[in-house]
From TrEMBL:
Keywords: DNA integration, DNA recombination. PROSITE patterns: TYR_RECOMBINASE. It comes from the Bacteria. It comes from Gloeothece verrucosa (strain PCC 7822). Residues 197-402 form the Tyr recombinase domain. Pfam families: Arm-DNA-bind_2, Phage_integrase. GO terms for molecular function: DNA binding. The lineage of its organism: Bacteria, Bacillati, Cyanobacteriota, Cyanophyceae, Oscillatoriophycideae. Transmembrane segments: none annotated. This is Integrase family protein.
């Protein structure tokens, strides 16, 4: 006997029947009302946690359909997204120029030299703190303010630093800019030395006169006497002055030089540190101003100078040149007190100890040493030597070699 076919029609979903389904990994509910099909996206992805929350919405919808509270004009009440407490991150506060600069200085404090860090905090930082323009993007306004309140040279320096600061901020997602608006702005301005970059090397006669003046300085002659002196006798500094003239090194490198940087035969010097004074304190720096170390060969004149001042018992860490009190020489004190009182009256013009560097460079090139070699000796580039140190007036009488 053949089984009879089941002719019973499938039952329709009862009133209030709601199905929960996943579509493209998003949860939604489907149901019918008054003969019309409805689909409501719940606004959440298909996860176990969201399914538990969705079941509560399904029950709420079923209840509204059965009790005839369903309003097709208000479908949003069944979306899960509406019931979620969305925690929005607070709006990101844009940093001011001062705030960004302080972060930049803090970041650089472990890598830059003490003198540079002091410049960041005082000279540059002071101008930035005073600026009423604190919007980082207002580069033209920043430039306008600086030009109105300081020199072109200082404005150039500050803009160079601000540009580096902003580029750092962009790289580290602290500034929402595509590129620094300060890029290239400093190139339009010139430093004072670029406009007045006339090196002033001492002639051989002037240099010998400077040596003699230091050698014979016994202090200030007391009024009414012919052999009684008072004050400091600056002949103490003669070896220091000669060393600057014989090496062309920076004063800070000579001030920081220790006997451990000179070989036992006094024939090779390693320049790899310096000392500068910041707020009256001597601060040691490793390597040169350009973060390099270099070897310097001594000629007989320099070797003899070092022999004349080296004691039999010196430690490697002992300074070669000291102040009268046995401490590191303070360059500003030496320049303003000893140099200005001994040299300027002698030559009848304002000079600085740095001109001994001009003198060394000019003299070496006059003697036929290439600018590239001299640049290595003094830790500079050929361009900087030609622009800032080489006294062209002193080499105009040199004839080309055949």
């Amino acid at each position: 006997m053949k089984p009879s076919k089941n002719t019973e029609k499938p039952k329709k979903a009862s009133a209030g029947s709601v199905s929960l389904e996943s579509f493209r990994d998003r949860l939604r509910v489907r149901f019918s009302f008054n003969g019309k099909q409805y689909t409501i996206g719940l606004g959440v992805s298909d996860t176990l946690e969201n399914r538990k929350l969705a079941q509560a919405k399904v029950k709420e919808l079923q209840s509204d359909l059965v009790l005839q509270r369903f309003n097709p004009e208000n479908l949003s009440k069944y979306k899960l997204r509406k019931d979620l407490n969305v925690v929005r991150p607070p709006e990101k506060k844009e940093l001011t120029l001062t705030e960004l600069w302080n972060k930049y200085v803090s970041y650089k404090s472990c890598t830059v030299k003490a003198k540079t860090l002091n410049e960041y905090k005082t000279t540059v930082g002071s101008h930035i703190n005073k600026m009423p323009v604190q919007d980082i993007s207002k580069a033209l306004d920043v430039r306008k303010y600086l030009l109105a309140h300081t020199t072109d040279s200082m404005t150039k320096r500050i803009l160079i630093h601000i540009n580096a600061c902003v580029k750092w901020g962009i790289k580290n997602k602290l500034v929402e800019l595509d590129k620094s608006p300060y890029e290239g702005m400093a190139t339009e301005l010139r430093h004072n030395w670029e406009d007045n970059s006339i090196p002033d090397a001492f002639s051989d006669q002037e240099l010998e006169a400077i040596f003699d003046a230091f050698a014979n300085h016994k202090g200030v002659l007391k009024a009414g006497t012919t052999d009684v002196y008072r004050g400091y006798a600056y002949n103490f500094y003669l070896p220091f002055v000669k060393f600057l003239a014989y090496t062309g090194c920076r004063p800070s490198e000579a001030i920081g030089l220790t006997w451990g940087q000179i070989d036992d035969k006094l024939q090779t010097i390693t320049f790899d540190r310096s000392i500068v004074h910041i707020k009256g304190e001597a601060v040691e720096n490793e390597k040169s101003k350009n973060n390099r170390s270099r070897k310097f060969r001594c000629d007989d004149k320099l070797t003899n100078l070092l022999k004349s001042i080296k004691n039999l018992k010196v430690s490697p860490n002992e300074l070669v040149f000291k102040s009268p009190t046995g401490k590191a020489i303070n360059y500003n004190n030496f320049s303003n007190r000893a140099w200005n009182k001994v040299v300027d009256p002698l030559l009848g013009r304002e000079t600085t100890p740095y001109q001994l560097r001009d003198t060394f460079i000019t003299k070496q090139i006059s003697n036929g040493i290439s600018a590239a070699v001299v640049a290595k000796w003094v830790d500079n580039s050929v361009r900087i030597i030609e622009e800032r140190y080489l006294d062209s007036d002193k080499i105009t009488n040199i004839c080309p070699r055949n």
